[in-house]
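Fold these two proteins, one after the other.
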Amino acid sequence: MDLEEKLRILGGAARYDVSCSSSGVRRAGRHGKLGDCSSFGVCHSWSDDGRCISLLKVLFSNRCIYDCAYCANRASASRPRASFTPRELADLTMDFYRRNYIEGLFLSSAVWMSPDHTMERLLLTARLLREEKGFNGYIHLKAIPGAGPELIRQAGVYADRMSVNIELPSERSLRLLAPDKRKEDILGPMGDVAERISANREERKRFRKAPAFVPAGQSTQLIVGATPESDLRMVELAEGLYRRYGLKRVYYSAFVPVSDDPRLPRLESPPLLREHRLYQADWLIRHYHFTCREILDEKHPHLDEELDPKSSWALRHPEFFPVEINRADYETLLRVPGLGVRSARRILSARRVHSLDFEDLRRMGVVMKRARYFITCRGRYYADSRASDEEIRRRISTRYREAGGMGGKGQMPLFAPEAFGVGASDALTSATGEL
């Protein structure tokens, strides 16, 4: 099989892994080296000036010894199989980079022969790129569940980011749909990487020239809709992963039916709206200081399809509102629908000079279509803001649908601030992930 055919097969096989966004690392250009890994990363993300950042995203192999029901590359699937060699993939990455097609590499793999064998192949590819090819760009490597800790530790020296995909949100679902995998094989490498990242930070404080270990942190992916777990379970798991392992991101991937296995649900289409709501809830936890139990609980185990999670929380807590813009502290401002992190900071800065009115808020990027129902300025409401909860809900959800949001079956708009429940200045960041 020639290299072009391998690339076609293994590039297509990688499309189901969404945990490829990168950020938080800076590796400046060096004499005699190729590539420059900027702070906003690569991997289909967006730079500060709006540019799309590209990467080579492939599987090392789609030959798998496991037979996970939800996976397109499972052992029993009838599809063309292929595998790179480490040198083939290293050469291919350099050829793509020299032609300015990519700025980095996202490398995952099916479990080929054994976890250790697969992880060793990924490690050799990264080592070739760094040591022989002099590649200084971004590398995201998948840590293979079940691989030996020493292999993963060695790979972490060459990678900017690593990820171990949990995929299924409970051990029960793992036994049902992926009986070849064990919970310990997934959480073990995740814990080992987290521990080594923490130790490396302390080491680099004492020895500035000590090699970095996974400087952009680690991430994981959860599949949405393949199993019956509630949104509460998904968000609670993500919150625990952030707290325990210091993950940079949890990615959510709407389940795409790839087989007629009777263990899988029958869906008319992937649950894209649910995926979108989970990302919004995740954003509130990471950047808006919400906890899972504030967003969801046993009485409300599923995210509202009509409203973003912050607006839904606000309508369930009328005692918290209205918020007086000229007196509220930062934490309180973050709870207001339509206010983002940046607009909240701008409010705190601007009101040191003068008292703010509604026009000032609009200029700062506050989404008044949402915020107007939950705030006062100088003790006054905005126009007809004293509506009932039912009326507010109707207006907000109607505006969301009219904005072209995913309230229906259409594609989520990238530049519509109303779709995110945050300030307009934060909308692009919410849409594209970490920058």
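Now the second one:
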Amino acid sequence: MLKTGAMTGEDWKMSGLAPQEIARRLSRTRRDFLRDATGVALGTSLMGRRFLQAQGLAKKRKVIVVTFGGGARDQETFAPEGQINIPHMLGELIPQSSFFTQVTNRGILGHYVATASLATGVYETLNNFSAVPPDHPTVFEYFRKDLGRPVSDAWVVAPSNGFNRIGESDARGYGPGMGARVILPKHLLNAAAGASSADFGHLLHDNYETPLYAPQIGGGEFELQQLEQVLKLSVADFTAHAKTLSSPDELSVYIAKQLMKKESPSLVWLTMHDIDIAHSGAYSLYVEAIRRTDRLCAELWQAVQSEPEYAGNTTMLILPDFGRDGDEDSGGNGFQHHRTGDPASRTTWMMALGAGARPGVIYDSPVQSIDLVPSIGGMMGFTAAQSQGRPIRELLG
């Protein structure tokens, strides 16, 4: 008999179920927990379409995507024993959102390559530890080319381990000059701190998974220009604020909010990474990072609602890139890694808030992570021609 709570990798293996059925049951477990914990309702595609038709008078759409590296298991989040770690999601965000309980990642479970897959709508196969661009056009290139948008209208705020190339692809007809501008907060801080960078070691730590592959944190005149000309921050003010922060993700969210205030781009992609400290093997730090990510997502949503350029016309999408291993799976290392590739590691979730999202509704129909890009295209009016995903109809009219 299957357990009704959070199940480990070994539990799923012993169940004898097919991967698709395991994913479905994971989805149902999340759905039932959220219905009990928050009182949200089960939605249908028709409900979503009727709601979206009522949004026709909305102002020009903006989209903010928030991903976080490695995700977090249900044991520490969407299970009775984990709900203490996500009070903001349960109490503030999920009641306002359309929540998708079954988002499957069928690609490579490495952070850069998985994020590149999210950004292209294709399961990319590039080397996870190489600073190379995606092979297929990114959502930023589709957005700018199809709609004729300037470079200032699409931005990525990301950790620095290779993500500097995620803004644009090598795809023919797209590529250099057609993508997003990328801000690497650690590079900004390293450039601003100069000889005092050792004082910010807790904010500059890079690549928890494989430290041997971590590139040296850069930063120079270009980053100082971004700081002063784009973000309108002086070196002194930036470093003074950085001293009040406790993690790289807090720095990234600060930069994203400053970018929204000063540039008001229509498409913002923020990748957080604190949760991946799980690779260090310290469970307490992993849980602390989950709680911090929960708080930061709520802070970012509050910023969206408080900024005149974003309030009322913005969709914010929150999703992990993938999950983590179960405690008893002999092929992995529990919460510490994501090596097995089993359904529990691949079946995640997505939250959609704001314009076009039906608040307080759960959808448990299966979608894939590569469905994100064509769905954003449907929201903003561009075509993701080379994406292999499908638009999520519950988000589109």
